[in-house]
Amino acid sequence: MVGSYSAGAGETAMAAWDDQLQLADVQAVLGDHDQETGVLVMPPGEEFAVEEPPVDEEAAAERQAEIAGLLSRFNQHLHDRTQHHLGYPYNLDFDFSLLSRFQSFCINNLGDPFIESNYGVHSRPLEVAVLDWFARLWDLNKDQYWGYITTCGTEGNLHGLLLGRELFPDGIMYASGESHYSVFKAARMYRVKCVKIDTLISGEMNCADFKSKLMQNTGSPAIVNVNIGTTVKGAIDDLDRIITTLEECGFADRFYIHCDGALAGLMMPFIKQAPKVTFNKPIGSVSVSGHKFMGCPVPCGVVITRREHVNVLSTNIEYLSSRDATIMGSRNGHAPIFLWYTLNKKGYRGIRKDVQRCLRNANYLVYRLKEVGISASLNPLSNTVLFERPKEETFVHKWQLACEGNIAHVVVMPNITIEKLDNFVEDLAAERAMWYQDEGCTPPCVAKDIGHENCLCGDHNKKARMS
């Protein structure tokens, strides 16, 4: 089963309860599906209230049966939501049942991954092995890098941008308007002035605007966030041009670049024609999410930086018998095990195969959407398909689409099959026909969002037919 674990004590109890259910009782436990979306309706919040276990044995047994039923229904809800998951960049195609034995341990990788702590129940050897793999991917030798496994891509951004702030306390942060919200959160948290850079219609940073804004602040160092795949459009900022712009504007040796590669940072190295993200270029840090393209049952990520940079954050902590150089104190020791297992199971060839399939399926989705008359576009080297925002929020909720303004997107991950894409397109086309059946009610124009050549609204579609 996708994302499954072998049964623990709680799951054994739940399974025993499920076995007692008669066919006629299943609907009562699992509940009804929403008539509009077909989504399984969750129990109301009060049903999940935490209650003291009854003292009476018979009442306690009844309560355990109720809990088992709620968990069964919750499990079914998660299964249903997984089947209708398209808008967010999470790879749900994994099976870590072999690792279920480690759930019995409180695995905490507190402190520096490279320094042994007094706490002995950790997974540091596996964490360091994962970090070594990523350092090699981005061309840093073992004696040149430092990094750790984070809770998510946001923590990687917070760490990378904090390094930039500490190295250049009087620096100004620059980030495109399409950057992830965590970048602007970092600026607020660290009290750093942040200048937003305009973007091209693709979502890529507009280097002409970047140059203009740099020249307005030549007296302050630059802390630059570079997107290796923007959140909404999957656009890749031009790292080489950004570096050249900094140098041309007189910022040589006065800039720090953090590369936010949450999703595409793990994809780009496996695409021959993709721009190279490497520490052979003057970048300071790179972060990726572990639960996105690789797939993981818990949010996690990786951040890699140059070893000399991390010294500005490091503090020796006697209580830990280690060094504090991370954002968090206690760190999830299970996540490194998941990532280590996945890298060993897939290897370079397996990841490359996943990347190729996702890019191929993303192009297929654009073709199918346009085939049924829906405006759609796809950036080169991206698996994020943009299209006109569905009119009804019930449809958005059903397929868990991410929306912004007039557009929505589907992120085609390794777990998304051609069959699922076909089902989605057919469902969207059928619903859309009803949304716009009334005279004068027409789909929105999304030319300003995805380009007039990709817009199939009444005006642009007519012009395309005439040309």
Automatic annotation (TrEMBL):
Cofactor: pyridoxal 5'-phosphate
Tree of life domain: Eukaryota
Gene3D superfamilies for this protein: Aspartate Aminotransferase, domain 1, Type I PLP-dependent aspartate aminotransferase-like (Major domain)
Alphabetical GO biological process terms: carboxylic acid metabolic process
Molecular function terms from GO: carboxy-lyase activity; pyridoxal phosphate binding
InterPro entries recorded: Group_II_Decarboxylase, PyrdxlP-dep_de-COase, PyrdxlP-dep_Trfase, PyrdxlP-dep_Trfase_major, PyrdxlP-dep_Trfase_small, Pyridoxal-P_BS
Pfam families per record: Pyridoxal_deC (PF00282)
Chain positions with N6-(pyridoxal phosphate)lysine modification: K292
PANTHER family: PTHR46101, SERINE DECARBOXYLASE 2
Protein family: Belongs to the group II decarboxylase family.
Protein name, entry field: Serine decarboxylase
Organism: Eragrostis curvula
